[in-house]
Fold each of these.
Amino acid sequence: MGAIRVLIAKPGLDGHDRGAKVIARALRDAGMEVIYTGLRQTPEMIAEAALQEDVDVVGLSILSGAHMALVPRIREVMNEHGLKDVFLIVGGIIPDEDKAKLSALGVQGIFGPGANTEDIATFIRELMEAQGT
Amino acid sequence: MTQELAQAMLNGSRRALAQLLTAVENEREGVDQALAALFPHTGRAWVIGITGAPGTGKSTLVNALAKAYRAQDKTVGIIAVDPTSPFTGGAILGDRIRMRDLSGDPGIFIRSMATRGSLGGLARATRDAVRVLDAGGYDIILVETVGAGQNEVAIVRTAHTTVVVEAPGLGDEVQAIKAGILEIADVLVVNKADRPGVTNTVRALRTMLELGHPTARRLISHHGQRLEVPATNGHDAPLWLPPIVQTVASENKGIDELAAAVDQHRRHLEAAESLDSMERQHIEIELEDRLRESLLRRLLERLPADSVQAVIERVQARTLDPQGAVDELIAQAEDGI
C-alpha cells in the first residue's frame, strides 16, 4: 500500500560510506523510501531508528570485517525493541563461512561487493511479497 | 488493529506510535477511527515549524533546538520531511544524519517523512502525524519542512510558531523583499552566523520585515521628539514583529536565544488571544481540505470506471473543454445512483 521503507545504516568504525550511499540511491530509484543515518552508528542507534521510522528492512553496510561482532548484536537489540519481523540484510565483504552463521542468526540477505543494486531491490521486494501472503 | 495501536500508544508504546504514523501515511483502513479516538488527547503540544532554503542548516538547527528543550525537561517529537522523487516515487530521507546527538533519549521521537507528491513543503499526512505525536504526549513538536523555496508555506497551517531559517550568502537583498516564505516567519533565524556576510543578511531581512509590516511599532522623529506609534493588526491586538536570531547551530550558539524567541511568540499569542483565532483558522483550512478530498473520493467512487478516461479523450481531441468535462462528470455522478 505505502512505499517500502528501508533503513540504511553503517555500524562500526568504517571511515567512508560510498557503498551505502550507492545502495540508498539505488533503492530510492526502485521506488523505496530510504532512511539514511550516516556513519558510525551503534547497534542501539540503529535499532532505535528502525523502531521510530517503522521500517520494513534494515540494510547494514559493513566493510571493516567486524560483522560477526556487530550484526548479531544489532539483531538482538532489534528483537528486544519488538522488531523481530523487520528484515535484516547485510552488504559488505563477508567470508563464506560467516554467511551461514549470519543467516542462522536471522539475517535474510547477504550481498557482496559485486552485487547488482537492482538485484538487491528485487530481493527486498520479494521478501515483502512473501511476508504479505 | 489500528484502534489497538492507538490504545497501545496512549499506554506508552513507542512501537505503536511508529506504526500509527505509518498507518496515517498509508491511509490504512481504520486510521480515521484511530485518529478520532486520539483527538481528545491532542491540543497540548506546541508545534514549531522549521522551514527555509536547502542548505541553511534546518536539520542541524532542529537537532540543537531539541537538545535545548530537553534541557528544559520538555519532551520533543520531530517530523522531518524530505522530497519524494517525482519519477520513481522513492525518496532518500537523510535528516537523521544531523540528529545523531538525539539518539538514545527516550524523551525524543524522530520520524522522517517523504512528501509523496504533495506540494507546499509538507507531506499530506504531516498534519495527522503531528496530531499523533501530540496525543503521544510530546510537549514540543518540531516539523522540519523540505528545503523550501519561496512558496512552500503550508507549514503555517500546522505550526503555532513558524521559524524561517536563512544563511549568509544565499540571496541578495532583492530575494529578501520577495513575498512568500519570509512573510510567514514568526521568528527569523540567520544560521551559520559565523560566516562572512552575516551583517548584510540581517540588514536585508530587517528591511524586508519593516516593509512587510508597515503598521509595525516604530519610532518617528518629530521635531526632535521620538514618538512611539502603537501598532495594530486590525483587531486591536498588538502586532508581533518577528525577531531575527543569529545562530551557529553546529556549535550550539544562539540556540537558547532562539528557544526564548519561540517562547516569547507563544506568550504573545496567548496574551493577545490570537491563539484562539489561529486555531480556528487552522481548523477551517483543514476542514476545507478534508471536505475537498472526501467529496472527490466519493464522486470518483460513484462514477463508472471508464467515464473519466472517456472525457479525458474528448478533452484531448478538443471536442470538450476541461470545465465542461468536470460539469459532465458531476452530472453523471449525480444520476449514477
Amino acid sequence: MKRLKKFLVDGQKYIFDGEKVQIRFENECEGLVKETKTLNAHRTNYLKTICLVLNNSCNLGCEYCFANKGQYNKPNEQMSFETARQVIDSLVTEIRKNSGKEMSISFFGGEPLLSFELIKKIVDYIESYYSDYLVHYMITTNGTLITKEIAEFMEENKFDIMISIDGTQEQHDYYRKFLNGYGSYLKVLGGIANFQNPKILNARITITDINSDICSYIDSILDLGVGRITFAVDYNISEVAFQNFIISLKNLIEKYFKDIAKGKLYDITNFSRVIINLALNQRNLSHCNAGISYLAVSADGKYYRCPRFVGNEEFSLGNVKDEKSFNKKMEDFKERLSIPDKRNFHCNQCVYVYLCGGMCYHHSYMVSNYEFNTTPRECNERITIFEGIIKGLCQLSTKERRTLLLFYTNLWNLIRKGEQK
Amino acid sequence: MRESFENQAIDFGLTSSELEELWLSSKTSVCEGGSEGGAG
C-alpha cells in the first residue's frame, strides 16, 4: 500500500513516503532517488530491557500519579535483592539464547532513589558477573533525593536519567508536593546542581490543565542546564487544556527549528525519535516494544508489560519464580501484536503508521479500556508532531540538519557505553 | 551493524559512518520504555 502525503514548504513541493519513512522532493521521480533500504528501528523480538520497580513508596504525593502516589496497590512493598538477582539472571539467559550482547536495566518506583543501596548492589552484581555484556542503566526519579554521591554514582555508570519537572516553580509545585504539602521544585533544582554535566539529564514534563502551554515555559526548564526534555499528556487533562496544548505544541515545534537555525541545540525526545527515523529511514513497529523486548517487574516479583500496568492482575505475566507460566503468557502476547496489520483499521490506513509505531498501551487502556485502540487525542498529538517536524526539516539547510544529527550523536554517546567492553 | 546508510532523499549531510554512529548512539535513547505514555 502507498502511504504518501504532500507538503508545500517555502514554495517547494515535498512528499512524505510513509512506506519508506522518507521525505523527497515531489518532482524527484521515485525511481531516481537513491534506492532506500527501509529498516526497522532498534527493536529486538526477545527480552532485552527490564524495568525494576524497586519499591512502592514515594516521598512525594503527586495527585496525578498513575501509581497512586507510588504505592500501586501494595503500599510500602520493597523489592528484595534476591528477586532482582533472579530477574537479571533470567534476562541474561534470554539474551544468551538469542546471541545478544546488550541489556538495559531501568530503575523505577515509587521513588527508586529511596532504594539507592539496592541500586548500588544490583549494579555491582551486574558489573561483577556480567561484565562481558554492554549494560545500559536508566532511572526515572522525582529528583529530590539526589545527593553529590548519588549524582557521581549515576554519572560514573552512565545512567540515562529522567527527572520530573513540570514547568516553572509555580506549575511544578501545583501537583508535585512532598507528603507535608510543600512543593518539591527547589529540592529538584538542588539535585540537578549535584551533577557535573546536567546536559545528560532528561526533564520529564507531565502536561496537565495547569501547564498545557508548554512552549511558554520550555526555556525555563532548559535554563536549569538540562539538555533533554520529554513530555507526556496526562490522560485526565480537560478538552480545553488539551486543545491549548496542541496549539502550544505547534508553536514549540516552530521554536525548536528556529532555535536549531540559530545554533541553540537541545533534545526534545518526542521530536528526536521522529527526526532520526526520518534520517535513517527506519520503521517503528511498536511504540516502545513493551511486552516483547521490554518488561517490568513489580516490587513483589511479578512480570508486567510495563510499570504502568503494575498491580493490575489482568496484565500480570506471571511470577518471577514461575518461568513456565511466564513463557506461555509471553508467547500469547507476542502472537497478538507480532505484526502491525493486526493492530487496528485506523493505524493500517494511516500514512504515518511506520513513523509512529502505534499508541501507548497503557494510555489507550486508561482512555478506552482496550490497550490496542487508537485514541483521537494521542493521534492528534502525534500527527501534529510528525507534520511539524517534516516541515521543519524541509526548512533547514543540509548543514543545519547535519549539525542537529551530530549534536544528537554526541549527546546520546554521553549516556551510552562503547560498543565493546 | 546496519546494512546500508545510503538512503536519503532530502540530504541530512552525514556520511555513512556518521549515520551509523547516530544509529548506534540512538539505541538506548529512543528505544524501549520510552516513558512517554500516560501520566505521572
